[in-house]
Amino acid sequence: MTTRDEALDRIASLAREHDVSLAEIEALLAAPAPEDAPRRAGVVGNILAYLGGIFVFAGIGVFVGLHWDTMNTAARIIVSLGSGLAAFVMGLVSLSDARFERASTPLFLVAALLQPMGILIAIDELSAGGEWRHAVLLTCGVMVAQQGATFGHFRRTTLLFTTLAFSLWLIGTALDLVGIDWAPIVLLLGAGTVSTCMGLERTAHREITPFWYLMGAAGVYAGLFDLVEQTPLELGFLLVACGGLVLSAWLRRRTLLFASTVAILGFVAWFTAEHFVGSIGWPLALVALGIFLLLLSALALRINRRYIARSDA
Hints:
mainly alpha; 12 helices; 81% helix; 0% strand; flat
């Protein structure tokens, strides 16, 4: 099947899935193509908005660093938590005016960085000590409630990103608090992250999934390797990583393909060094490893070219 035929099949599948009529497709094709100028202006606006957020955060950081030792408790809380709350409120206000809507993303990101820092600083300054994970649980709980409620109202992808980040932090800290080892925690959080991304694939928020696919896959592979290392099940890691390659082709995600490829390469290199070094079969193992890497690289390129790159065209 040619690329053109695959594209037509893809268009037909999407049209049936979203109940798009032939008349709507014809009207869209007959409409004049939009000019590039608005798009370029949008890109420039986004860049300037992100730069503005970076400079705001950098300025606050430099100011706090220079005067931290001379500040009292109230000043430290105000300059950290107060700045975060101010950025959050400014982000909400910017959503009410289309002219400043682009500024909401960097403002929400700055708020998501400053507010938890401010809450932790307030707890540290006002408390008499105790378990630090309790402070983290309180901080994450507050942030999940705030970011989640705001996302539920405004449906902004940035808020979903921060809600997911604080949720993972909250769950990981809670599991660590009850005494679970880090490997099962990382494996569980990674698998949950990948599953969440799969659920977001057919939503308007799918643009955040590449980053979280990478983080989730890294968590799965890191946790799984620690669990199966030096056990009879260690070859099962290779099967899971190969399954990740298949999943990356099905989902058409390069970050998942990259993480799975790196996991396979790393495991094969570790396995040969662990079980064949110092023996007469070591040179043969190196040759076999080289051939395997060449085949794997060819497979990864083929998956990217046939299943992923075409979907982006």
